[in-house]
Amino acid sequence: MRYLTDNKKTPRRLTAFLTAAVCLYTAAAFVGCGKKSEPAETGYGELETLPPETEAPPEPPPPPRELDPLEERLTEQLALYEGKWSIYVQDLSTGKEILMNDRKVYAASEIKLFAMAAAYQQVQDGKLALVSVEDDVEVMISESDNYRFNRIIEKIGLKEVNKWCEANGYDETEQHHGLAPASNYSDSLRNGKGSNKTSAKDLGKLLSSIYHKECVSAEYSEKMLQALMDQQKRDKIPAGLPKVVKVANKTGETEDENHDAAIVYSDGGDYILVITVVNPTFAWDMNDRLAEVSETVYDYFNGIPFPELPSDSSEEDDY
Questions:
Q1: What is the homologous superfamily of the domain 68-301 according to CATH?
Q2: Considering the entire predicted model, what is its pTM?
Q3: Deepest of 49, 80, 137, 214, by most Cβ within 10 A of its Cβ?
């Protein structure tokens, strides 16, 4: 003890001694001091750690939907119906189309769609104030009001719908007179060049431009779309769809013609469906047929199998 006490190096030696003792203790417990220990035996091998999380690669988009099977089905279905049918379908995600038996037909109230676009074009160009036409357009479309249509024609001018159609490539649409019955209808609204005409193709093209916000402008396309969303006549194309499906549509009918043009927002994809039917004296009673066609198109876009068609029909094929 004297050596340790008297020696001036005692603190260093004591420290070394203590360090050695600690190392020996640690070696007994952990198989060595100052070097990497061996993995402990657990009976199950070494413990594994999960690899670092990585984001799953995005799923590839589905292949473009082919419309040929739908067109074949519609051809079979229309062969069972009376009247002369025209159908336009557009897949709004791809732009693919079906155009069946396109022809000019009496437009009935479908001409109001083109009057709406022409009116908003004049607002866009600064020729009319929005407040002077907006309410008339909304009621003309949502309630299919003939009085409001005649007011729009008077406000924008008798030639403006045709000018707008010509400028925008709607070469199968013509507007030559106002609409009756309406208390403000008069011969002054008629230009003597025939009746109002349109086609399934032109109606489909117009709805597509509204959907893509390319009709007049994005702002006025949105106003047009809202008017169509507010439509009160839902007994044709919308009647063939589940009630939860959102539809923007415009109808037109006389006793000889029955039409509907719609943008359909479905889970299986948004699409346009236009149906025009000419069936003299009986067209007004064909709403159920239009709804059946609508159901067929909806089923195809949403992966629902088609039901069996009747094996024969007592009705004359006039398609």
A1: DD-peptidase/beta-lactamase superfamily (3.40.710.10)
A2: 0.80
A3: 137
